[in-house]
């Protein structure tokens, strides 16, 4: 009976997605016909090559790594590459000194596994680092895999922020030698820190959550990172913000990671379209292999509609609520991921909110604003960071007041 119910949920979800996709495709065909490029679609012309929106000359090194003079670092000696974005990113890595030679890396134990890559503890030039090694089968099974990997390396190489994971270097030689070298953190994700382990379980069977002020502090750090990404030109849209993509360092400070699904949003461009984004369409099975991603995905993205950086605000709102309640989103419903996605998309479902009389004034209202059905009504991360700072100050003052009252 459970399997039949699951199949019914899947059928209902796929039917709704198909209808939404058909409507959008009809709209695209009408626009193409109106503007005179319908033949480019019907003739099956390939899409233009993806390029870095910054231009080659503007990229900067991710670290002060000296480039290696071996033949392996010479772009002319690189293995054949069909994707121009990957080739350009590899050239930039060599030019700006963050290209890593395979022989320099000494891999140790695996400390994490994702849908496309393994995370190793490793040694590079005497330093302990983390290596995100993309599995060769990812490139063999995804025609857009090279651009997908190049995008992550390109985005991450440009970040300089205390709450964004720091890139040390990269090796961009698919399919066998594609990996990112980053700073090595404690290894704990935000979800593991909050819930006390990897298992998804009810609060009554979990250890007590961290203190409220610490949970708000982690939320503020994530918001600061996202404010930095959205303030860039062009803006960086993360598109996969969730607890497993936030790591903590030894001092429990947050780092936003995993920019594999990130996209640039240039000035003057108001929205991206999920299903017409070439790289995302080619790599959509990555999301499908990770059902929990849909729990944090904005409804407009689930519906395959145009979206802006406000999709990150929605994802953050789900995380913020999870941090406050210390409960996994929708755990009280016992819904499967497909049913959650369908109900979120049609606006009938959001996670259970924290109790208003337990938490600081304005917190519940802030959460509700971040996951508003209308993206334009969601606050910016500049507004969110200001609100979270005030909320944190309220908590600190309340804690000090209770301490003095108890002492008296």
Order of helices and strands: HHHEEEHHEEHHEEEEEHHHEHHHH
Unreliable parts:
44-79, 275-289
**What spatial order of strands do you see in the largest sheet?**
1-2-3-5-4
Note the beta-strand portion: 5-15%
Q: Give the number of helices.
A: 14
Structural class: alpha+beta
Query: What's the total count of β strands?
Result: 11
At the first level of CATH, the class of the largest domain is Mainly Alpha
Family: Belongs to the protein kinase superfamily.
Pfam families: PK_Tyr_Ser-Thr (PF07714)
Domain Protein kinase: 105-401
Region (Disordered): 39-84
What does this structure look like?
With 408 residues, the chain is α+β, with helices and mostly antiparallel strands. The chain folds into 3 domains: 2-42, no CATH class; 60-183, Phosphorylase Kinase, domain 1; 190-407, Transferase(Phosphotransferase), domain 1 (Orthogonal Bundle), CATH 1.10.510. Helices cover 41% and strands 13% of the residues. It has helices spanning 2-35, 38-42, 84-95, 136-141, 145-157, 190-195, 212-230, 278-282, 284-288, 299-302, 310-325, 337-345, 363-370, 381-407; strands at 105-113, 117-124, 127-134, 167-173, 177-183, 235-237, 246-248, 254-256, 263-265, 272-273, 306-307. A 5-stranded antiparallel beta sheet has the order 1-2-3-5-4. Strand 7 and strand 8 form a beta hairpin. Helix 1 packs across helix 12 (337-345), helix 7 runs antiparallel to helix 11 and helix 11 packs antiparallel against helix 13 (363-370). The longest helix is centred in the N-terminal third of the chain and has 34 residues, at 2-35. The chain is globular, with a radius of gyration of 22 Å. Residues 44-79 and 275-289 have low confidence and may be disordered.
């Amino acid at each position: 009976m459970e399997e039949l119910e699951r199949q019914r949920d899947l059928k209902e979800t796929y039917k709704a997605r198909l209808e939404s996709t058909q409507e959008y495709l009809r709209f695209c065909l009408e626009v193409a016909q109106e503007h005179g490029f319908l033949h480019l679609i019907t003739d099956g012309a390939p899409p233009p090559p993806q390029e870095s929106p910054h231009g080659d000359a503007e990229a900067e090194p991710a670290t002060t790594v000296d480039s290696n003079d071996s033949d392996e670092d010479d772009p002319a000696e690189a293995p054949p590459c069909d994707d121009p974005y990957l080739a350009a990113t590899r050239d930039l890595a060599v030019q700006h000194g963050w290209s890593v030679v395979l022989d320099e890396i000494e891999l140790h134990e695996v400390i994490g596994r994702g849908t496309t890559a393994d995370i190793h503890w490793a040694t590079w030039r005497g330093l302990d680092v983390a290596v995100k090694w993309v599995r060769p089968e990812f490139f063999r099974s995804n025609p857009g895999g090279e651009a997908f990997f190049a995008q992550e390396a390109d985005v991450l190489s440009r970040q300089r922020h205390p709450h964004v994971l720091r890139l040390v270097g990269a090796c961009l030689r698919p399919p066998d030698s594609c990996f990112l070298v980053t700073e090595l953190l404690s290894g704990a994700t935000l979800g593991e820190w909050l819930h006390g382990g990897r298992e998804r379980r009810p609060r009554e069977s979990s250890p007590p959550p961290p203190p409220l002020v610490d949970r708000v502090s982690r939320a503020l750090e994530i918001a600061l990172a996202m404010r930095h990404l959205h303030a860039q030109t062009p803006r960086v849209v993360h598109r996969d913000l969730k607890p497993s993509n936030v790591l903590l360092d030894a001092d429990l400070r947050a780092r936003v990671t995993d920019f594999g699904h990130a996209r640039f949003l240039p000035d003057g461009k108001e929205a991206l379209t999920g299903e017409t984004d070439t790289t995302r369409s080619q790599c959509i099975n990555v999301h499908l292999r990770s059902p929990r991603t849909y729990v944090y995905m904005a409804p407009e993205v689930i519906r395959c509609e145009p979206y802006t950086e406000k999709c990150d605000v929605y994802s953050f709102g789900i995380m913020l609520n999870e941090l406050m309640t210390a409960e996994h989103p929708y755990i009280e419903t016992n819904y499967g991921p497909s049913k959650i996605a369908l109900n979120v998309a049609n606006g009938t479902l959001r996670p259970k909110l924290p109790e208003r009389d337990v938490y600081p004034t304005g917190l519940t209202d802030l959460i509700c604003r971040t996951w508003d059905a209308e993206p334009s009504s969601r606050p910016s991360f500049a507004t969110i960071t200001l609100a979270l700072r005030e909320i944190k100050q309220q908590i600190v003052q309340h804690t000090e007041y209770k301490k003095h009252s108890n002492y008296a």
